């Protein structure tokens, strides 16, 4: 089994449900969930059953199509009103990954542009096509990022990654791990991938290590606090990470701990690349200070994954799910349109990212 063969989010053949791989159970169990209720889709995103910014975007596209289409009406005004209510609800499931609102806004744009031209039945069909397009484009975007990232690699490189920005975080291939999949396609069998465990939800241990190992890559799991010694020992030649939202100046939010990795990479003189579909770049934000950071329940730190609780009852816990890395620590931002180098706002403009 190769994780690359697992579909993260697809539309069911009946076009009334979506099928997601429940990532909370990986790597122990491969289980798919069939979802159609708005509450279940909201919960699947909130609980990280489907996670990773691009995959959340794909789920949001299918999600809003499915739940909006459940309204039996010929009245376009009623359809639009219900669509907007459901959109706001799904949008509240997680705050940091811009792909969630990006996909929902893209679907709403289709609705607004066609509300006077199509019947409700035709609109449902049109929304379905748009959601499919989001998924198809995501696969192509991930491959482009992979090809550009692959050009930066050398035989025998050690690559450090944080969290999971692999195939499981997208429709296929991933962003930060896409260069490794492309390298495999070119017959390279001498890359070494180091996966940060990524406390507290262990996306590195449970997902990236699983992905890379099943793809046949030489994979080493390290705890988050081992990145420094691994770099000092000369094992890491390049860092690839994903991102949930990039501001116009190149500051970016990614899984908690990413900024520490960037600081270490700078210290040890290791190139640090962010892999970002252009849908993740939020040009409306001047800097990372404007990015909303998701705060998650204390239990994820104190007891989740442990056989018994590992912290004293009542202890205060901070659990920010993301942090913001300053653009000064970033070597380059790999988008599907090209690699952006500082100054990032100018580079994004040049790449046609608005
Ligand atoms: O909380 P998660 O698991 O959704 O966080 C995922 C990440 O931080 C990824 O690095 C990011 O979404 C990019 S995925 C291509």
Keywords:
Four Helix Bundle (Hemerythrin (Met), subunit A); 11 helices; globular; 4-stranded mixed beta sheet; binds 5-S-methyl-1-O-phosphono-5-thio-D-ribulose; alpha/beta; Rossmann fold; 354 residues; M1Pi_N; 7-stranded mixed beta sheet; single chain
Walk me through what this model shows.
Helix 1 packs parallel to helix 3, helix 2 packs antiparallel against helix 5 and helix 3 runs antiparallel to helix 4. The model has no long low-confidence stretch (mean pLDDT 98). Strands 6-5-4-7-10-13-14 form a seven-stranded mixed beta sheet, with helices on both faces. A four-stranded mixed beta sheet has the order 11-8-9-12, covered by helices on one side. With 354 residues, it is α/β, with parallel strands linked by helices. The protein has two domains: 139 residues, Up-down Bundle (Four Helix Bundle (Hemerythrin (Met), subunit A)); 201 residues, 3-Layer(aba) Sandwich (Rossmann fold), CATH 3.40.50.10470. It is built from eleven helices and 14 strands. The site of 5-S-methyl-1-O-phosphono-5-thio-D-ribulose has 19 residues, from helix 2 and strand 9.
């Amino acid at each position: 089994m190769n994780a690359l063969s697992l579909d993260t989010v697809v539309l069911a053949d009946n076009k009334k449900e979506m099928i997601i791989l429940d990532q909370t159970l990986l790597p122990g169990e491969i289980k798919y969930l069939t979802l159609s209720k708005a509450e279940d889709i909201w919960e699947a995103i909130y609980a990280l059953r489907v996670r990773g910014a691009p995959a959340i975007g794909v789920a949001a596209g299918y999600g809003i199509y499915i739940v909006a289409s459940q309204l039996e009406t010929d009245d376009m005004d009623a359809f639009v009103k219900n669509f907007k209510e459901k959109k706001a609800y799904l949008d509240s499931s997680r705050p940091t990954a811009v792909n969630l609102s990006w996909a929902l806004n893209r679907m709403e744009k289709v609705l607004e542009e066609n509300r006077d031209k199509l019947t409700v039945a035709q609109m449902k069909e049109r929304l379905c096509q748009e959601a499919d397009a989001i998924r198809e484009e995501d696969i192509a975007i991930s491959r482009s990022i992979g090809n550009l990232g692959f050009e930066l690699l050398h035989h025998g490189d050690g690559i450090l990654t944080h969290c999971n920005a692999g195939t499981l975080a997208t429709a296929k291939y991933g962003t930060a791990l896409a260069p490794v999949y492309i390298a495999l396609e070119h017959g390279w069998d001498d890359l070494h991938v180091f996966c940060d465990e990524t406390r507290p939800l262990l996306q590195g241990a449970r997902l990236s290590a699983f992905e890379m190992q099943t793809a046949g890559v030489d994979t080493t799991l390290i705890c988050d606090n081992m990145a420094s010694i691994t770099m000092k020992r000369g094992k890491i030649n390049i860092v690839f990470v994903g991102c949930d939202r990039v501001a116009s100046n190149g500051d970016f939010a990614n899984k908690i701990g990413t900024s520490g990795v960037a600081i270490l990479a700078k210290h040890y003189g290791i190139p640090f690349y962010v892999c970002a579909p252009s849908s993740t770049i939020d040009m409306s934000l001047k800097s990372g200070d404007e990015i909303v950071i998701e705060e998650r329940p204390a239990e994820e730190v104190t007891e989740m994954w442990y056989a018994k609780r590992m912290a004293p009852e009542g202890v205060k816990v901070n659990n920010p799910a993301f942090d913001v890395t300053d653009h000064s620590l970033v070597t380059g931002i790999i988008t599907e349109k090209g690699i952006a180098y500082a100054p990032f706002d100018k580079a994004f403009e040049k790449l046609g990212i608005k």
